């Protein structure tokens, strides 16, 4: 087969062409990226406002998925899409008001520790309430069909819906922050909190609403992604660090940066898995042979097997070489 | 130096050495010795971690890599010795070798991660932690994936008949290294370098202005911390004769952070306290409750919110009082007892409720029967739920009454201590 260069053997045997894999990984990467964006947008907003990296952000993503599972079991998916994020947002606001605000006076390290502990507690609470095994949160049956087939690949209706919703949220968020009065106050509170306070706005309350709003956004991601990625207690710890990677690469506090970095990481990790580029020839250049055990490991490495390392490698390099990220206006 | 001077200066250390020496006499069983060994390991790791967090002001989310990688190296070295691939190295000195391996890693990683403190450092440490955890699944020949690797510490000659085959012998090995490492780490805090670490933590700009290279100070602190973490990791490998990816992952890094912070980062004693207490609670309570990690997390968050000095901070709050007049502490006794009692009542109710929820959602038998506080109860029955709720409510109400009382007495006693000093 001529079109099989750089494809994994399994895909090649099924007669899948390079173009198909490209489209497939682009679509799925975009989807995953937009999901990441729903988390990273809230996180970056919270960071630029309060200077605190919310370690528990992905926990609200998880809460969204679990709430949606319960609500969709009782009254259906559409109410869940509304009420689950609302519930998570209220919990987020309460935690900001009675937790984070108490810790604020001890400094940023204490805030980081608080959210780290919170992430741990939420994971354990989820295990306490919903058990340690994963929950059958399924794609709503009304959207569980193939919407269209293009280039020999099926595009499920639910995934297209996910993509459209997340794009819609991005547009709405952009409009909210740049074109409305609320957005202008938030933007002003980001850079000049004292001045905004002096103008009569309650800045701590703005912080609380923003924190709750960001948690709600993450929960929407959970409602949409929980049934695709799986709803289990480990989902937060799996996704949490990746979201950090995204906002560090995009630049802390930059919404556009968060979008581009989300899509970049989404497509990169998906493409690394589907193309599965072998590193053997690369290591062979340095005389590594599969004769030794360690050499064998290196030669057998492919972009798919190292795809879990790539985001962190990029983040560390970014922090070392350009700590402000791609579009950030200040250092981490 | 007179006897009294010796006791004043080194009394604490003598007591510590005595405790380490005498533990196997009352606690000679295999289980107790295993806990004791884990405690010594936890103490070394916690103290090493606090060199970063407490003394250097660097918050790391990936420090377990120095712990775990030294462990992997140790097991490999033991196996290589068994196969005769490498020359013999005394098993009792392996922690030194493991520490050096971690130190080299610390030099390399510290070079790039310690340029800045604060959030940048925390994020880089997280990145390295996640990378190494992922590598354990990729480089199978070294890490052997999720299974981990095993070794046998009983290799080579047997000086004086010491084989480290028995639990007592390996406990004394861990204990001796724990003591030596603790002394060394304490000594470091007393050097000019230790003081510079504190200065760089508190005010890097001023430290720089005085002429110190803040990055180099942080780098050195990071390297030393990695060294001592490596000693702890080696001891872990020697005690368990097994290491897996769970020794390097973020859970391990978070665990040591929790321990250190619960114990208290502000004093040298804090991490020791946290390590001993948390290791003990973990090994005792995980037999009784599956929700222990939930309580652990809640304790941590509570400490972060209300007692940032940790348990040691709470203890040393009383220092001015007992330095003035230890008899004043007696007046705090009954308010404290009252406060503690009301907290306990509240906890009995809340924990009972949580245990029941936990059992309800994790019950695979489908019978919904459990043992709570010695009573066999059915979760379909509403009575235990109501009783626990009532106990919890009573406890919380008592807390509301007793906490202001505790605060009031505390302020009175502090006030009196101050008056006496001023007189």
Explain how this protein is built.
The complex is a heterodimer of chains A (332) and B (423). By secondary structure, chain A is an all-alpha fold. Chain A has one domain (28-146, 154-268). Chain A contains 14 helices and 2 strands. In chain A, helix 4 (77-103) packs across helix 9 and helix 10 crosses helix 11. The longest helix of chain A has 33 residues, at 18-50. Chain B is an all-alpha fold. Chain B is globular and about 65 Å long. In chain B, the strands form 2 sheets. Chain B has a two-stranded antiparallel sheet. Chain B has a two-stranded antiparallel sheet with strand order 3-4. The two termini of chain B are 34 Å apart. Classes of the chains: A mainly alpha (332), B mainly alpha (423). Chains A and B meet through helix 4, helix 5, helix 10, helix 13 and helix 14 of A and helix 5, helix 6, helix 11, helix 13 and helix 16 of B.
State the main characteristics:
heterodimer, A: 332 residues, mainly alpha, 14 helices, 3% strand, B: 423 residues, ABC transporter involved in vitamin B12 uptake, BtuC, 2 domains, two-stranded antiparallel ribbon
- Alpha-beta classification of chain B: mainly alpha
The whole-angstrom Rg of chain A is: 21 Å
> Which range does the strand content of chain A fall in?
under 5%
Reported CATH architecture of the largest domain in chain B: Orthogonal Bundle
Low-pLDDT residue intervals, each spanning 5 or more residues of chain A: none
Number of helices of chain A: 14
Shape of chain A: globular
Q: Can you summarize the main beta sheet of chain A?
A: 2 strands, antiparallel
Please trace the helix and strand order of chain B, writing H or E for each element: HHHHHHEHHHHEHHHHHHEEH
- Strand residue percentage of chain B: under 5%
